[in-house]
Design brief:
Layout: H1 3-18, H2 38-65, H3 67-72, E1 77-83, H4 88-96, H5 101-109, E2 111-115, H6 123-132, H7 136-139, E3 145-147, E4 154-156, E5 159-162, E6 167-170, E7 173-176, E8 181-184, H8 191-197, E9 202-205, E10 218-221, E11 236-240, E12 252-256, E13 259-260, E14 263-272, E15 281-292, E16 295-300, E17 303-308, E18 316-321, E19 327-332, E20 334-338, E21 344-347, E22 351-352, E23 362-363, H9 366-375, H10 387-391, H11 397-421, E24 425-431, H12 433-441, H13 463-482, E25 487-492, E26 498-504, H14 506-512, E27 538-541, E28 545-548, H15 565-576, E29 580-581, E30 586-587, E31 589-594, H16 595-598, E32 610-614, E33 617-620, H17 622-625, E34 634-636, E35 643-644, E36 654-658, H18 672-679
Parallel strand pairs: 1-24, 1-25, 9-10, 9-24, 11-12, 26-33
Antiparallel strand pairs: 2-36, 3-4, 5-8, 6-7, 10-23, 11-21, 13-14, 14-15, 15-16, 16-17, 18-19, 19-22, 20-21, 25-36, 26-34, 26-35, 27-28, 28-32, 29-30, 31-32
Helix pairs in contact: 1-2, 1-9, 5-13, 8-18, 11-13, 12-13
């Protein structure tokens, strides 16, 4: 480990010693435990001092222990830039048009190849395979959502949060006698943990499916599936004085407020107050006063901020009081949309405050605080770009793009800080802008997309082309920091992209083909609550999965796992692959995968029994994802969310660039981890399914 890395760790410790923060935990209904007591602070100070005083000895022991690893290492540093969703075909096109000069330079110096994704090619699945070098049967992530085996309701596949089980009750108050249980459901071991076991330091920034963070030799900031302060995956608020106007279906809430002269008074809605026996949400009051036709003055928490119409505020702290002086801090951005004749105010989801993190979003815990002190507050929500507000036309295209660009800019500062300080080891950072912009602006590349509902004239330069060019500019800066210091640079994506024009209601198809039965009045009910489980053999949930209603697995299962399951899987797969869209006369499904055949590992029983690989232009309907059975099979996709990758993995490969020659023709995402280990002279663990790629490294 080089001196700069040691300094990096010292700065983190210094931040822990001299920043006064109250740390807490909150989850959906789980409450929080404040750790700001004198005893806790005293213990933290003593621990930090012990680490500082013993650092030289520990450094010497580590150097002696791992000298063989450093001797066998072929590289000093590996740098991996993740560009979520960057598409191989689009990249080829922009390269041929001369629009990506830095990518072209990297290609010519080393390699550019398609990168095979996972089955299915969905971000949480793919990035989990990147981390662990394994197939989903070993890391246990198969979709964004999975089903609760008891209730059949959808739940998050990556994280489980449980409230403390023991409480001390005093009057109307209660106090936890233990901590909440926050679990990462992704299994298997990330390759940077293996690096750390051999003395190689890693900086891992915003790689999806890392919440709650794990301990290893390095620093980490969590990403996708890290919740907001309310424990959701992103709940925005929209305040309006209009009595009858906008409606919200998903992802947010409308708050009707009354205007008193030029002022409105309202509350930011926080998590439930864990100190009270009776459920009651905590609130943070604010006041908005009109200044003129295009501006208003915001007062919140003793701070006054001038808001200008159609301009986001900086991140603003919101404090929620529980009891006995306990508070928890979140951050949000305000966007004044309209002043006259009605006031309209959009507020982002309330993010966990990185300066005073209420949940385990970084390792070590002070890393988020260090970044916040260094660069200012930043988004911590896993899906920070609010596509739900865009879909429901509460914010416009430019306002959504502002969120995308700011998130990437925040990560760039973090990443370059690591590149400057970690001169030996591994540096990884994932940027989300390419994914979010392609999801919401593919319509600009597709003149026939249903969301246009008529004539459409595409812009001269699409938002997608611009985000690719932003990625190219980022790459140029990264390449400059990798010159002449022996760094191996890789640029990867987890999958590619294509159009999402038509949604398929898989549960309606299962119903029409006799595999699913609804209760009376069960149609259009959420969370599969309208399904008659006593007569249902199969059901769909999430973005690509079909589950059999197996005995001894699902709570109300009726399918015998030994005598019926295998033939039922084959029957459904065969029929579904024959599905044709009557509107287009095109096949909707390319291939249906039997999870018991494509996955290998101890967790494949938790996977959907069948994985649907759709053709270009198709995807599971919005209703299928949340377990709502509609009255028709195909649905036009009318949302801004017009592009997707939840299709057959063969149709959406990702990208792989390297500043070294790569001899392998078909690299896979799960090969990256074993390749990095091999370059550092470490044999890949036996559980890994990936293989080390042939990287042409200079001798010596």
């Amino acid at each position: 480990m080089r001196v700069k890395t040691c300094v990096f760790i010292f700065i983190l410790l210094f931040t822990a010693l001299f920043s006064s923060n109250a740390h807490a935990y909150i989850g959906p209904g789980a409450g929080f435990a404040v750790a700001g007591s004198f005893l806790a602070l005293f213990t933290a100070l003593i621990s930090a001092l012990f680490i500082l005083l013993t650092w030289p000895l520990r450094y010497l022991l580590r150097a002696l222990r791992y000298r063989r690893v450093f001797a066998l290492s072929k590289v000093r540093r590996v740098v991996i830039v993740g560009l979520d969703g960057m598409d191989y075909t689009l990249t080829q096109r922009f390269l041929s048009e001369g629009k990506l000069p830095n990518f072209a330079l990297l290609r010519d110096r080393g390699a550019f190849k398609p990168l095979e994704s996972t089955v299915p090619p969905i971000s949480p699945v793919a990035w989990s395979s990147f981390q662990t070098g394994t197939n989903p049967g070993k890391h246990n992530i198969f979709d964004f959502l999975t089903r609760d085996r008891r209730s059949y309701a959808p739940r998050l596949s990556s994280t489980e949060i449980k409230a403390p089980t023991r409480w001390l009750r005093l009057g109307k108050y209660r106090f936890a006698l233990g901590s909440a249980d926050i679990r990462l459901l992704r299994k298997a071991v990330p390759f940077w943990k293996t690096l750390g076991q051999h003395g190689i330091f890693s900086s891992i920034i915003r790689v999806p499916i890392t919440f709650p963070v794990e301990k290893f030799y390095g620093v980490q900031l969590a990403a996708m599936c890290a919740p907001d302060l309310r424990g959701t995956q992103g709940m925005f608020s929209f305040y309006t004085t209009a009595s009858e106007s906008e409606q919200v279906d998903e992802g947010g809430e409308i708050v009707r407020v009354k205007r008193q002269g030029n002022t409105i008074r309202a509350d930011l809605i926080g998590p439930e107050n864990p100190r009270l026996k009776e459920a009651q949400v905590m609130r943070c009051p604010f006041e908005l006063s009109v200044v003129d036709a295009t501006s208003a003055r915001l007062r919140i928490g003793g701070r006054t901020v001038l808001l200008k119409q159609n301009e986001y505020s900086d991140w603003i702290e919101a404090r929620f009081k529980a009891a006995f002086g306990a508070t928890i801090s979140g951050i949000c951005r305000f966007l004044l949309l309209n002043v006259e004749p009605e006031i309209k105010l959009y507020v982002t989801p309330i993010n966990i405050d990185p300066d005073k993190p209420a949940m385990p979003i970084s390792h070590p815990p002070i890393y988020a605080t260090y970044l916040s002190k260094r660069q200012g507050r930043f988004a911590t929500l896993g899906l920070a770009e609010d596509s739900w507000a865009l879909n429901q036309k509460l914010i416009n295209d430019d306002q959504f793009l502002d969120q995308c660009h700011q998130s990437d800019d925040e990560r760039e500062k973090m990443f370059f800080d690591s590149l400057d300080k970690v001169t030996r080891g591994l540096c990884v950072c994932v940027f989300d802008g390419t994914d979010r912009v392609q999801h919401t602006f593919w319509r600009q590349l597709d003149q026939t997309h249903p969301c246009h509902q008529g004539a459409y004239v595409p812009p001269e330069h699409s938002a997608i082309e611009e985000i690719y060019q932003r990625a190219d500019a980022l790459l140029g800066k990264v390449m400059a920091r990798c010159e002449g210091n022996g760094s191996v640079l890789m640029v990867i994506s987890d999958h590619g992209f294509n159009a999402f024009r038509r949604g398929v209601d898989l549960n309606y198809w299962l119903e029409q083909n006799g595999y699913l039965k609804l209760k009376e009045n069960g149609r259009n009910r959420r969370n599969l609550s309208g399904v008659d489980w006593s007569q249902t053999r199969a059901f769909a949930l999430g973005l690509t999965g079909i589950y059999l209603n197996l005995k001894n697995r699902e709570s109300k299962g009726i399918v015998d796992p030994k005598s019926e399951a295998a033939s039922l899987r084959e029957e459904i797969a065969r029929k579904l692959q024959e599905l044709v869209d009557p509107k287009t006369n095109e096949p909707a499904v390319k291939r249906v995968y039997n999870a018991w055949k494509v996955y290998d590992g101890p967790f494949k029983n938790d996977a959907p029994d069948l994985i649907v690989g759709y053709h270009l232009g198709y995807r599971a309907s919005w209703e299928t994802a949340i377990g709502r059975v509609t009255d028709r099979l195909f649905h036009d996709n009318l949302k801004a969310w017009s592009g997707d990758h939840c299709i057959d993995h063969s149709l959406v490969p990702g990208i792989f660039f390297c500043n070294k020659k790569i001899n392998d023709e078909t690299p896979r995402l799960m090969d990256i981890g074993p390749t990095v280990l091999e370059m550092f002279g470490i044999k890949a663990p036996a559980h890994m399914d990936g293989r080390a790629l042939s990287v042409a490294l200079e001798k010596g």
